[in-house]
Amino acid sequence: MTRPLVLTLGEPAGVGPEIVAAAWRALNTEPLAFAVIGDAALLRAQGLAVSEVNSPADALDRFARALPVIHRPLPAPVVVGTPDPANASAVADGIEEAVSFVLSGEASGLVTAPIAKAPMYASGFRFPGHTEFIAELTADAPYAGTRGPVMMLTARDLRACLVTIHVALDQVPELVTAERVARTARVVHESLKRDFAIARPRLAMAALNPHAGEGGALGLQEIDILIPVARQLRAEGIDITDPRPADTLFHDDARATYDAAICMYHDQALIPVKTLDFWGGVNVSLGLPVIRTSPDHGTGFDIAGKGIARPDSLIAAIRLASEMAAARAR
Hints:
This protein is an alpha/beta fold. It is built from eleven helices and twelve strands. The two termini are 12 Å apart.
């Protein structure tokens, strides 16, 4: 690795500091490196060696011996398990600085530890979450491809990509438009080639309705929207199936037939991902000028500081970001 990753510490009162420390212990002998933006005192409190640095680039020659940290002290004391809105602006500033390191080329990708939305909103944060914030921070950066963001969740051999994300189920049908489905598929197709080194990506489209609408008896979205979109995409050279019943799309044999599934709504993607690997799933933002991954879990206030938080998902997110950066560099 010639350029390290940059990690954000996320909500300081959550499990972020302990899973970041555990990830460094698990990865410091592997051929990758990362620097963390956050309060160095929180990481020293995890009982590991910390080396304060000024840039992610400084991590390369220190990572094997100590966790490189770009020290950004917090304005308020941290009470483990209890978020403080006074620290929310520092959390947002850390994300913004990490994105700037990737855009400048000092880091090859970004891995974000979980944030707590309520204290962020209380402090004036106006974005639904990480993904939308990073999309705005990178809006003016050059990007050769279809713009996202598109959320992908990965677990083992499954990549599940979302057309709609955090919306009520009764809003999904009106949001599953031809334009939205086509853009999602184009972003995923391009990303699989660029970031996953898959020369000829195969996409499977999940139907919206049971039994793919049963010829219109159980819904018309497949006939009116999804099948025409699939035909249009195939005419563009994208290998994508017609909508397939979601209840038969995720078993072992089915997953072997595609590289990513285009899912219409949140639980359609998240249930199979979490069933396959509850602890090791990864959230990936596709279609952005920067590589960004994240563990697929929250801040864990109820277990923070108890030494039981599992770092599996963060470790998987770091490894995947490293692999994506290598693929994009090629």
